[in-house]
Description:
By secondary structure, the protein is α+β, with helices and mostly antiparallel strands. It is built from 1 helix and 4 strands.
Amino acid sequence: MKVRVTVLSQRGKCSQGHRVGDSWVIGDKTEGGICFSAFCSLLPWVQMLRFDGKTAWEVEVPCPDWVNPVVFRLEKVKE
């Protein structure tokens, strides 16, 4: 299963240039462009969703930059 990662919100100035609406699909391979720090925060959630894990809420994950936070929404991609 693949997971779509979309920038939901962004405050301040993201040093990597992520903007609201940016989107990537992650499956067996990743698409380029997600900064490494954000990817490390996203990875446990991406893996859970890729292997059909479920939550009672929408998965929204902030990057570790608490001064200029970017929040990502993760959702399963139906193939």
